[in-house]
Amino acid sequence: MSLSREDHANLLIVDDDETIQRLLVIAAKDHGWRPRTAGSGMGALDALDDSIEAVVLDHGLPDIDGLQTLERLRAAQPDLPVIMLTGLNDAETAVRALRAGAADYLTKPFELKRLFDLLRQIRVDRSGPVIAVTGASAKLAPADGLRSADARVRELLRRMEKAASLDSTILLTGESGTGKTYFAREIHRLSPRANEDFIPVSCPALPRELLESELFGHEKGSFTGAVATRAGRFEQASKGTLFLDEIGDLPPELQPKLLNVLQDREFFRVGGSKILRTNARVIAATNVDLHAKVADGSFREDLYYRLNIIELHIPPLRERKDDLPGLTAAILGRIAARRGTHTWTLSPAASEAVAAYEWPGNIRQLENVLERATAFTDRNELGEKDLVPLLESRRDGHAANAGGKVRTLHELERETFLEAYRRTGGNKARTARELGVSERTVYNLLERHGLK
Ligand SMILES: Nc1ncnc2c1ncn2[C@@H]1O[C@H](COP(=O)(O)OP(=O)(O)OP(=O)(O)O)[C@@H](O)[C@H]1O
């Protein structure tokens, strides 16, 4: 183990190859860093202290490997950005490093310039309040959602961008309305498949037989109503991205079929006997705890691990309140652009009300509230009065018997439905779950009460 300790070092270089160590030290100094070196995983842990701003970590180390070192370093300092150096063609390690929280990875041999560009960006990210992610997305116009004032979300964005280029299956987790679909589209947009199709499929929206046919296609005559042969979404998305929303609702009968297609890329159409192949990249999303579903036997463990190659968890809005001003401005800008009007600002009191609220329906609810608040004002500034009545408390709305007046069943249904629908920020799947009905019933209710 070689370990050189310099006071106030801010970059830890971990590599057992002394030539590379020396090279990196010289380059680091040239780029204004104060390097410290370690030649092993345990050495890296010894060398870590609060002054270290970032780590460059080789995977092939003599004692504990780079991934284990990464895990221990991040357990010691959860926000520590680590750039992993992996071997050529070692995509698996790269994926595992990103899953374990690496900020980025580089395959050896790499250009020093690329490494120090990444390190510079890490510094910028850490010092600036609102930044755009680097790399592929920087070449495109940075989307609103790819900015964050929250360190945890910035890290997520970096991992997301990296994962976009890898073609691996991704599992997006997070509460309803946190932006899983939005992120899935962004991942597709940042991926090499950007010019191909992005095909979303909502698992609970269809009954089992139709979902199977939707995903895998069917042969003519394979069931009543199958009047013609139809290609499924896996075929259509073969060059692009297939987004499986609410994957936790995938019926048990379809889980083995999805597992097969993820493992072997092969499947049959419903009623078909010809093996078909697909190259679709799969992004799945869930707002339920799939672990718990595995534990209670309603979701296959092997499928869970197949889907969860890279997990990206989007925190709820109440845990990233620093992002509220940026998201509010972005959403207001979007509404203004759509309506062809000026945009709006929030008065200090309105901003405070927004910040104090818990946003159970997350970004979708924020969007709905801003849509409604801006619909009825001629002013450029939204005040507390424009917003507060739209921020419902969970206890509100139980007006089934308000004023002792007897309601018709139709009215009660409408109120109960609307309450759940608003509380979930207009999310149909979650409304369905809250009310214990199917998602199709939610569509019927919207229709029946003239809310479509
Ligand atoms: N980062 C963001 N910036 C701006 N708008 C966003 C962002 N994330 C999400 N949104 C908007 O918030 C709304 C809800 O997002 P989205 O549908 O992606 O959530 P979701 O997590 O997929 O919800 P569900 O689990 O209910 O399907 C969308 O209209 C989306 O455009």
Outline of this structure?
It comes from Luteolibacter soli. The chain has 452 residues and is an alpha/beta fold.
Describe the structure.
This protein is α/β, with parallel strands linked by helices and 452 residues long. 44% of the residues lie in helices and 14% in strands. The protein contains 20 helices and 19 strands. The protein has a six-stranded mixed sheet with strand order 1-3-2-4-5-6, with helices on both faces. The protein has a five-stranded parallel sheet with strand order 10-13-16-9-17. A two-stranded antiparallel sheet has the order 7-8. Residues 144-145, 174, 176-182, 245, 285, 287, 327, 330-331, 363-364, 367, 427, 429-430 line the site of adenosine-5'-triphosphate (ATP).
| Cα-atom radius of gyration | 25 Å
Shape: globular
**Segments where pLDDT lies below 50 for 5+ residues?**
128-142, 394-406
Largest sheet strand order:
1-3-2-4-5-6
Largest sheet: 6 strands, mixed
* Number of distinct helices: 20
> Which superfamily, in CATH terms, is the homologous superfamily of the largest domain?
P-loop containing nucleotide triphosphate hydrolases
Helix content: 40-55%
Q: What percent strand?
A: 5-15%
